[in-house]
Amino acid sequence: MIAKTFLTAKGFGETSAYLCRDLSRSQVLAAEGVRAHDWKLMAADFEWQHGLMPEKEKPVYHCVLSFSPGEVVSDERLVELGRRYLEKIGMVNTQYAFVKHSDTEHLHVHILANRVNNDGEPIGKGLIIERGIKAAAELTSGYGLRPEKGKRLDQTNMEALHEPDAKRYRIYRAIQEQLPECRGLDELEKKLLQRGITMRYRYDVSTGERQGISFRLENMSFKGSRVDRMYSLKALERTLALQEELRQKPGLFEGKEFGERMRLMRDDGLRKAEERRLKELELQRGQRLGRGLRQ
To answer: Quick check: 216 and 200 in contact, CB under 8 A?
Structure first.
């Protein structure tokens, strides 16, 4: 299974019509907070909630979960996968609809969700594409599904992304790919410059010490923590120090390329952090339910 993400400029009306208007190819499997029997009513419900925070740009979250040709997955399991996927990427407490399409040789399900949640607050901030990649990989493995042959788990419609999101994501991927091979920030700076990305530091005016870092691609600049919290100046320094410490241990990475091993270690850390976050969400839901029962 792969996940293709679209953070588009299209509105809920146009997207709902594309997903649901042709009943010969579409089937709404599940919906939360929207009327699913009519695409116009569905769009109106999504738009009403967007109205709780009308200044939110690109409120439409659209993703496709695509399966290998010939792979059979029950509708119940598709709904379960859709809900688990939304939980893993942090799209909770919001409206959604899962729409199965049968117009291609392979099974695929569209997920349409509102990036303004039920409390009128923005959700799905940050590198939601990267979270989607990891969620698809984890669900594919956890449910015994097959990745689509010849395709990568990180396929996404980059051209449809809001420009800042697209550039921030390109910076993220460049750092992710280059950092494991670097022995210091100067080396990382040189490698990123080859990709058209420049690094700048913020200095303490009294001590002259580095206090922060930013990355610039073309006409846009982002603080390191906005690219990813692991790419703040302090976090990068800790990662580089750890890599250097591990390099000094002979035989530790024998038989495996160092950079790849470091990437695996980082992914394992992110997985554990994601597990902790999901447990926190479950606890919060339980607390809300408890308050509701008491009332």
So the answer is: yes
